[in-house]
Structures are given as C-alpha cells and as structure tokens.
Design a protein that fits this description.
The protein is of the alpha/beta class. The protein folds into 3 domains: about 10-190 and about 200-245, Vaccinia Virus protein VP39 (Rossmann fold, 3-Layer(aba) Sandwich); about 260-375, no CATH class; about 480-605, 3-Layer(aba) Sandwich (Rossmann fold). The strands form 4 sheets. The protein has a 9-stranded mixed β-sheet, sandwiched between helices. Helix 4 links the parallel strand 2 and strand 3 (about 100). Helix 18 crosses helix 19. The termini are far apart.
C-alpha cells in the first residue's frame, strides 16, 4: 500500500490527509518518534497541570500516553475529519477529559491566550514543504495563530527534523516577536542507536519558543541550544550561529548513520568539543579492518592514545592507525587523542565521558549489551605538562610541553598550534628530572589531583635538557652524514665550519658543538622568538664557536654568495619547514631546493663540502 505523496506539496493538502488516514485505518502513525522516545523532552517543558493544545494530532498515540501519565487537560486539532472521528471513537470512554476537534490551525476558533503549551509533532515540517510565497504565507498564519492562543510565558513546543528552511522560518518568526528561542536535540536511546534500520539519518529536535510580554523598542534576542536532555543549554550570539550549531549536529548524525550502514568509508575523523567552552577535547579517528573475521567479542573497541604520543607514526598517521587496528584484532577501532589545555582525571573518567558518544559510531551487527573495551598503552593516559605558551609574530601561537615517553622518560617539545600534530623540536630531559616528575605524579594521584600543571617539574627550564641525546631521526641521519666528509676517525680532530639553517630548539647545533670540539657553527633563524625559546627552554647558549644570526635563510645565503670574500663552509644543513601546507612539500620549503639557489649554496661550500 503506497501512502507516500506524489510530491511534498501534498503534505499541506486536506484531501491528501483524508485519503492517508482512510487507507491507514486505526494503526497509529508516529512522526519523529514514539512517546517513550520523546517523553524526556516533553516532561522537561510541559507541566502536568498546564492546558495543552496539540496541532495536527493525526492518529498518533502521543496525546493518549501524555493523558495516561497525568497530562489530562489536552485539546487536539486536525484538518482531517476522518482522523478526528477515529480518535473520538478511540478515546471517548477511556479518556473523557481529552477532546478532539476538526479545525484548521491557520484559523483557530479558540479565544486569545487559551493555552499554556502548543505541541506540534511534525506539523510545521509537513506544512513548510518549500519556500514559495503561498507556502510561507500559510506558515505565517499558522505561527501567528500559535502566538495568539498562547498565554504570556507559554511555550510552542515543536518536534522537527530542523531542516534549514524550517529552522530559519521558525527562529526568525519568533525571535522578531521577542520570544526566547531554544533548540533542544532529542537524545537517542541505546536501542535506537543499534536498531537494524534507523528511521532517520537526521536527528530529531524540539523547538521551544517561549512567549514574552511585548516590549517597546528593540527586545533582547535569546538563542539557546541544548544538546542532550540533561544537558545545560548554551547561549548563542545569533540566529545564524544557532543554525550552524544545529547543522553541525545534523552532519554528525549523518556521519554516524553512514558509519553504521557501511564499513570502510575511508579516513574518518572528528573532534568532540567541551560543551561549556566549545574547545576541542577529543579527536577521534575511525579505523575499519575489513579483513578481520567477525566474532562476538571483536566488533568494536576504543583506543586511548596516551597524552603527548599522538604525533607518533602509529597513532598520528593513517597507515600507522591501520596497523594498530589490525594488530588489535577488531572490526572497528576508534583511536582517541586527548587535547592539550584540557583536564583529564584518568582512564575511568575518560571512559565514563566517552561511553555514550562512541556508541553512536558502532558498526552494524554488534550484539546488544556488548561491553566495549577501552584500550591503551599500559592502561595509562600518559602525562602532558604544559610548561609555557606564547605567541610569535612569525610562527603564531606555540606551546612548550613535557610529555612522558613509552620508557617513562620525559621529553620536552616545541609545538606550533597552527599544526598541532607536528613536533617542531624535541629534547630528552635528564633522568633525575623525569624521576622527580614521576614521584610528583604519584603524590598527585594519592591526592586525586590531575598531574598536568607546570609546577609538576620543579627544575629550571633550560637546565633539565639532556644535550647528548638526539630525539629526531632526521637529526641522527644528518650527523651520520658528516662521515661523508673525510675519515670519520679524524672528524673529532678536524676543524669544521658548519652553517645550520633553522634553529628551533637548538638540539642539532648543540649536539654538533658538544661532540665535535673543533667545530664552528653559524645558525640562522628567521624567528627571534625561537632563539628565546631555545635559550630558555632547551638549554641552548651561544659561545665563541656558536653564533646565531636572525635572518631569512634564503636571504642570508644569497648575501653570502654575493660577497667577494665569501666564507666557505664544510657543511650546510637545512633544518627548516614550510608554514604553508598547500605547497605539498614541507621540509625544506621548495625554494631551498630550487636549482638557482642550490648554485648559491654550492658557491659557499668548500671544494669537498
């Protein structure tokens, strides 16, 4: 039996609904969810003693179930004479105080201020099928009538899919009238999340429009979004920002539905934000392993990446995450990275915070009530201690942080916040400092205080670095490359002139300075802030064999190449990266390997340099 209209315009037709209810008979038709799915939001915004008008009631059981739990002052209207007759017959003896009237909601016959609540489940969506002038005029009449029959302080509670044109119309109309506007996302139950055929890819929302007494002049416009039934509403600055926030939740719901229906969608990642501040709190990557043979216990798992280790290949790169998922042996693995600047009390609190949200990303076919395992490295969430944050006019915001590696040693890192997943510079901290940090962390655990405050490391900033250790693999390769100059056994006794372009934390020139006693190093750094960072936080210092020039590396080499008595270096090292990700080449920037520039580089090298 085909009950769907030929076009969406028929949703606004009396004839369509008469035919619909004749064909459907007495079986209830529930737009956007049953009473059990909506009762949380309904009970929050409707009091049992209030007088309620249900517009476009259809043959939904919603009014009946509200009546049965104590909401007995309910009037229902609909344009279909067929359905009104059905509902009267169904409720005459069992629910005598509830009335059903055939009435056009654009021309209601009630006196002004007759109701405290107008309840609309899908009716606005059915009427507002397009943005043609005739449709908009009909909706204007409907919403004007809603405003007329409501008392001051009353609420229009509209259950909707919040399509962009519907949200725009409803929010625009009532905010201009000086009403308070709140959009409340209806929470999905665990059963809905795991049901075989989800009814909607879009989430269901409730618009709660509260009527205020008219004021002269421009009234304060109030826009709020409530993401969960028990959540605290968030005040937003404009109707546009409210629409954007709703759209974000719709996109997330669509993504969840796609992940549920299909495996192997490719690289999928999303941020979960702090509800109070809006700042990212977790970054999730969804990794499917289609080759894993399904069993009852290997459908789904969550992997918490220890703080500070999200830049490692295994966690930070797509291929690494695929390898991690395959070795873990789950059909779907979600890796979770923890953001700097956020407080985390431990694995248990993270699990409690994420459990409901990550279930929305579960694959199809997962048994109900299955306990989803939370995995990590050694069951720990790691340690990240932010030592310093600042802003560089050239490099932007940056952070100095100490993180614990997998061997429990601590490492100091420089990270530019414009590229949070790339460690700009890294140095290992001395063992005694790592030991003190671990003791401090154990002490904090006993006090139940999160150990991620700067005072956790009492050592002086620049004196705690192990200058004998190179963290970066490319630095080790560059040092090994010195063996190409001459007999390695003679290197330590041979005077060497080196030019290092790019200072960062200074680990590379420091290592050369300390391990090659006859070396003389010139370092070029474009950003003066980085010289301060290297000196204060990474133990860098200049000497008679170590000089830093604040200049653009390209300009510095070009000027040297143009001098008549040009210097000659045994080694020139490029340790610079590009701030522009669109270039497709990050280290070094393409200009450093242009043929003309490399000829200038050659001109300031010794014959065997």
């Amino acid at each position: 039996m085909n009950l769907l209209p030929k076009s969406s315009k028929e949703f606004g037709s009396v004839d369509y609904w008469e035919k619909f209810f004749q064909q459907r008979g007495k079986k209830a038709f529930e737009w956007y969810g049953t009473y059990l799915e909506l009762c949380g939001v309904l009970h929050k915004y409707i009091k049992p003693r209030e007088k309620v008008l249900v517009v476009g009631c259809g043959n939904s059981e919603l009014s009946e179930q509200l009546y049965d739990v104590g909401y007995q002052d309910i009037v229902n209207i609909d344009i279909s004479e067929v359905v009104i007759k059905q509902m009267k017959e169904r409720n005459a003896s069992r629910r005598p105080r509830m009335s059903f009237l055939k009435m056009d909601m654009t021309q209601m016959e009630f006196p002004d201020a007759s109701f405290q609540v107008v309840l609309d489940k899908g009716t606005l969506d059915a009427v507002l099928t397009d943005e043609e002038e005739k449709t908009l005029q009909q909706v204007d009449r409907m919403l004007a009538e809603v405003g007329r029959v409501l008392q001051v302080g009353g609420r229009y509670l509209c259950i909707s899919l919040a399509q962009a044109h519907v949200l725009k119309k409803a929010v625009g109309h009532f905010s201009r009238e000086g009403w308070m506007v709140r959009v409340h996302q209806v929470a999905s139950s665990q059963e809905q999340l795991l049901e075989a055929e989800p009814r909607f890819s879009l989430p269901v929302f409730a618009f709660i429009m509260t009527k205020f007494r008219p004021v002269t002049g421009s009234a304060l416009q109030i826009f709020e979004l409530c993401a969960q039934e028990q959540g605290k509403p968030v005040r937003l600055e404009s109707a546009e920002r409210l629409a954007e926030a709703v759209r974000e939740r719709q996109q997330y719901a669509w993504l969840c539905s796609q992940l549920y229906r299909k495996a192997g969608l490719g690289s999928v990642s999303l941020d979960l934000c702090n509800g109070d501040t809006g700042e990212p709190r977790y970054t999730l990557h969804v990794v499917d392993s289609p080759t894993v043979k399904p069993s009852r216990d290997n459908h789904f798992a969550i992997f918490i990446i220890p703080q500070g280790r999200e830049t490692e290949w295994l966690f930070g790169m797509e291929e690494g995450r695929k390898q991690l998922a395959a070795s873990a042996g789950f059909r779907r693995l979600i890796t979770v990275a923890l953001h700097r600047g956020q407080q985390y009390e431990g694995m248990d609190s993270i699990q409690a915070e994420l459990s409901a949200r990550v279930m929305e990303l579960a694959p199809a076919g997962m048994p109900a009530q299955l306990q989803v395992p939370f995995l990590s490295v050694g069951g720990d969430i790691g340690v990240r201690i932010v030592q310093h944050q600042d802003h560089s006019p050239l490099s932007g915001d940056y952070v100095i942080e100490d993180v614990q590696g997998d061997d429990k040693r601590y490492f100091r890192r420089l990270v530019f916040l414009s590229n949070r997943n790339v460690v700009q510079s890294e140095a290992r901290l001395l063992q005694d400092v790592s030991h003190r940090a671990q003791k401090k962390r154990k002490k904090d655990r006993k006090k139940h205080r999160p150990a991620d405050t700067p005072e956790d490391l009492p050592a002086a900033p620049g004196q705690s670095v192990d200058k004998s250790y190179l963290c970066c693999e490319h630095h080790k390769a560059m040092i090994a490359g010195l063996a190409l100059l001459k007999n390695p056994e003679l290197l330590l006794e041979t005077p060497l002139a080196l030019l290092v372009v790019g200072l960062g934390g200074g680990s590379l020139p420091l290592f050369i300075h300390d391990h090659f006693p006859k070396s003389c190093i010139h370092a070029v750094e474009i950003d003066p802030s980085m010289l301060e960072v290297a000196t204060q936080w990474f133990g860098f210092c200049q000497s008679d064999r170590m000089k830093v020039h604040i200049a653009d590396g390209l300009d510095f080499i070009t000027s040297l190449a143009e001098e008549e008595a040009r210097p000659h270096y045994d080694v020139i090292m490029f340790d610079v990266d590009s701030k522009d990700p669109t270039l497709g080449m990050s280290c070094p920037p393409p200009a450093f390997v242009a043929q003309l520039f490399l000829q200038k580089v050659k001109s300031i090298l010794t014959p065997e340099g």
